[in-house]
From TrEMBL:
Superkingdom of origin: Bacteria
Protein name: 3-oxoacyl-[acyl-carrier protein] reductase
InterPro entries the UniProt entry points to: KR_dom (IPR057326), NAD(P)-bd_dom_sf (IPR036291), Sc_DH/Rdtase_CS (IPR020904), SDR_fam (IPR002347)
SMART domains hit by this protein: PKS_KR
Organism: Umezawaea tangerina
Pfam families to which the protein is assigned, alphabetical: adh_short
Family: Belongs to the short-chain dehydrogenases/reductases (SDR) family.
Length: 437
């Protein structure tokens, strides 16, 4: 909790925040092992094709089909797949209007629709995006809202996504549109350790977001191969030991790096199941002051190295069946940022890589997706000037910065063996930024 957040929750702070209409960051409910999916009942509505599949996923939760007066709900879930014309959009209002103020702290709003290009009414299904993003900006006390487009035939591939979006694992994800396509789903033997027996590679794993990704994937049962440059060898070994994994010291921009990495993964582990391209560098300067070396360094690490490693993995079939490739993009790659033309170019390129490879990976029974973090509390952002840091923290619907674990939990959802239908997505982990993206 940052200083402003602590002040806002003090007696004097609550008074000042309320009187002046200042940002009011609410403590977020984040996942801890053994925590129930939700801490209260779910209200489930709609008349589409997903009502019963959702109820089946939530069979261990108290699900209400009709609103109970004075009941506080942990989640409001509406199946909008039955909306086949714009006049029926009134059904969304009719469901949420009476109960939206009954949503509890860190509550979840989830709207389920059909991909607009597949729908009887493309207009109505596309309209749901504006509704959901707006609801996310209206919610208070850590609430989030998402839209999930579920393709025909994907009705029984929704569980991993529902478990993620309704739980504390998605604490800093809001206002997002997720697409689930039809695919063969591999359900884990143990939903608490879905990656048991899997091998996961995490680049840039020695600290920050990379270390958190390694920890969460290790928690979920994976053997994590932690990779970073030799200069980070000491910290890298500490992370690998902490997660029960192994380490590889390698400069991923070296000419022979992809071949060396593939040889290591195949000889030591028989291949790899999950590849997380987290390694990245910054060389910030406005374009007129940025020299070619600063440009080249960022593109080489953040983008070209990923492209070359993916080519080597797919060219040798080192990525095993139901495999996952996960890129770490940035909201800068979506909205741009002053002094980061090189960085934003590289991060937009990561999104382009997802678009380019999604169909090929689907043909292999695998997936590629990306996360796009916003303001995340790390050592790097701690060095940002105070006012810039405060703007980054407050200009989102949750009025606070995210944590490295928020990115890691999103990566773990993509990595889940039951997320095979989740392919070609770019999900922002930004608390729903209010400007620019």
């Amino acid at each position: 909790m940052d200083r402003y957040q602590r002040f806002a929750k003090s007696g004097v702070g609550r008074f000042v925040v309320g009187r002046l209409g200042l940002p009011d960051p609410h403590p977020l409910r984040r996942f801890t092992p053994g925590q129930p999916l939700l801490d209260g009942p779910v209200l489930l509505g709609g008349t589409g094709r997903l009502v019963e599949p959702v109820a089946d996923v939530l069979k261990a939760v108290d699900v209400h089909r009709e609103a109970v007066p004075d009941q506080r709900y942990a989640a409001l879930v509406f199946d909008a797949t039955g909306i086949d014309g714009t006049a029926r959009l009134r059904e969304v209002h009719a469901f949420f209007h009476p109960v939206i103020r009954s949503l509890g702290p860190s509550g979840r709003v989830l709207v389920l629709g059909t991909p607009p290009e597949e729908a009887e009414s493309r207009i109505a299904q596309r309209a749901l995006e504006g509704f959901t993003r707006s609801v996310g900006k209206e919610l208070k006390r850590g609430g989030t809202a998402q839209l999930v487009h579920v393709a025909e035939g994907a009705e029984h591939g929704i569980e991993s996504t529902l478990r993620f979006l309704l739980s504390g694992k998605s604490a800093y994800v809001s206002g997002q549109v997720v697409r689930i396509g039809a695919a063969a789903v591999e359900e884990p033997a143990d939903w608490d350790r879905p990656l048991a027996g899997k091998v996961a590679l995490v680049t840039g794993a020695s600290r920050g977001i990379g270390a958190s990704i390694a920890e969460v994937l290790g928690r979920d049962g994976a053997h994590v191969v932690c990779l970073d440059v030799p200069a980070q060898g000491g910290e890298l070994s500490e992370v690998a030991n902490r997660v029960g994994g192994s380490s590889v010291q390698l400069d991923i921009t070296a000419a022979d790096a992809p071949a060396r990495l593939v040889d290591h993964l195949t000889q030591r582990h028989g291949g790899v199941d999950v590849v997380v391209h987290n390694a990245g560098v910054l060389r910030d300067k406005t374009l007129g002051r940025m020299d070619s070396g600063q440009w080249d360094a960022v593109i080489a690490v953040n983008l070209t190295a990923q492209e070359r490693i993916n080519g080597a993995l797919l060219g040798t079939n080192a990525l095993r069946g139901n495999g996952r490739i996960i890129g770490v993009s940035s909201v800068a790659g979506i909205a741009g940022n002053v002094g980061q033309t090189n960085y934003a170019t590289s991060k937009a390129g990561v999104i382009g890589m997802v678009d380019t490879l999604a169909a090929e990976l689907a043909g292999r029974g695998s997936t590629i997706n990306a996360v796009a973090p916003g303001f995340i509390e790390t050592k790097m952002t701690a060095g940002v000037p105070l006012m810039t840091r405060e703007v980054g923290r407050r200009l989102n619907s949750l009025s606070q910065g995210g944590l490295p674990v928020d990115v890691a939990e999103t990566v773990a959802w993509y990595a889940h063996p039951a997320s095979t239908g989740v392919n070609g997505n770019v999900v922002r982990v930004c608390g729903q930024m209010l400007l620019g993206a």
